[in-house]
Amino acid sequence: MKLKIHSSSAFLILSALTFFVACNNESGDITPADIEKHITFLASDSLQGREAGSANEAIAANYIADHFRDFGLEPAGDNETYFQEFTINTAVLRNPHAGDDTEGEKLLSKNVVGLLQGTGNSDELIIIGAHYDHLGFGQFGSLYRGEQERIHNGADDNASGTAGVLELAEYFSANRPKKDILFLAFSGEEMGLLGSAYYVDNPTVDLENALAMINMDMIGRMVDKKLMIFGIGTAENWTAIIDSANTGDLDLNLVKDGTGASDHTSFYYKDIPVLHYFTDTHADYHRPSDDTEYINMNGTALALHHLVRVIVQLDELQKDELAFVEAPGEQRQSMSLEGPTLGVLPDYGYEGEGMKITGVTKGRAAANAGVQGGDIIVGIAGEELADIYAYMSMLNKLKKGQKTTITVLRDGERMTMDLEL
């Protein structure tokens, strides 16, 4: 059943807002200038990194909700609002093995939820999402090792994806599809996919009606028109849809995995076909240097234009035409890292044995050991590593300062080096 506005006065207000938006931007064009506007605000120092549960996260949430309202989206959160609140227990963050009832500081966080009513009669809907939280001053998840506390602005991670949600909401409010579109901005992603996990367990729409979920996380650093799309193994016809949408000569890297370190994972485990748009990691990931000045606004617009063409195709399909299938290989609930880090940049598109890396950070453990960009890490501490998940699981077993070994494949040659964490 479609979610409806509950009063005629509210309907008139939303209708007026929709008309206002349409008159001021008839086509809802996705432009680099609009993308830059959203990212500049969300990744400004004044928001101090948008840490989940903080006052600055609430400012970002209000910014998103205000735009949803301006675009004519219906409130689809709690109590006829745009917000869905959930609680974060910091004691559990510090000790993942602690129970939810463990004493600790409780933070109130919120997802932002808006529904665009389609023009058709179907109850089926498309879900588009991105997380809007980041690391604040780096208390949880930072790879920065400097002594001075610094703001982590998260321009790419994930103001870029949040800007994508806002741009797509504006575009489709001016170019209404037949199906409903649910727009979701998650919080708590950086603390372990908390917002999306809460949403799928407490949905404000019937997820049985969800045709697909499309997630955007780090879509702001496109290089040479390269775009990675995960999740193509979750429906048999994803590849055909994605390829036919590629009218702009994007260099697409299609990955079958239905899970990973972002919010599409939560929906995959509800048997919903998923896609995850991603322009790859970089040296500024989870560091204070992830700033707006490094965003490729034109590249982000290219990714969003491709996504528009995908959604237009989905709008013509029925659920039985995009049936969920389990992605091949081992799928994981999350990719949490609690142990030391090596200072490497994974190649997330690599599908072979071990974990291929694209670069190393000077002065960090891997570089000091002699590891180079292009190497494939196949073993640590004498244990073979099947993939990136095994790599992260192994690091969680190790301690900072520990001396061990790392084994890599370089140009087909197996090499083992001393490693100090």
Total separate domains: 2
Taking the alpha carbons of the first and last residues, their distance comes to 54 Å
Secondary-structure element order, as H and E?
A: HHHEEHEEHEHEEHEHEHEEHEEHEE
Estimate the mean pLDDT confidence.
89
CATH topology of the largest domain: Aminopeptidase
Give the oligomeric state: single chain
Cα-atom Rg, whole angstroms?
A: 21 Å
- What level of helicity do the residues show? 25-40%
Question: What would CATH call the homologous superfamily of the largest domain?
Answer: Zn peptidases
CATH architecture of the largest domain: 3-Layer(aba) Sandwich
Structure description:
- The chain is an alpha+beta fold and 421 residues long.
- The chain has two domains: 8-321, Zn peptidases (Aminopeptidase), CATH 3.40.630.10; 344-420, Pdz3 Domain.
- The chain is built from eleven helices and 15 strands.
- It has helices spanning 8-24, 32-42, 55-70, 90-94, 155-174, 194-201, 238-244, 264-268, 297-314, 365-369, 388-395, and strands at 74-75, 83-89, 106-116, 125-131, 180-186, 210-216, 226-230, 251-255, 274-278, 344-346, 355-360, 376-380, 383-384, 403-410, 413-420.
- The strands form two sheets. Strands 1, 2, 3, 4, 5, 6, 7, 8 and 9 form a nine-stranded mixed β-sheet that branches. Strands 10, 11, 12, 13, 14 and 15 form a six-stranded antiparallel β-sheet that branches.
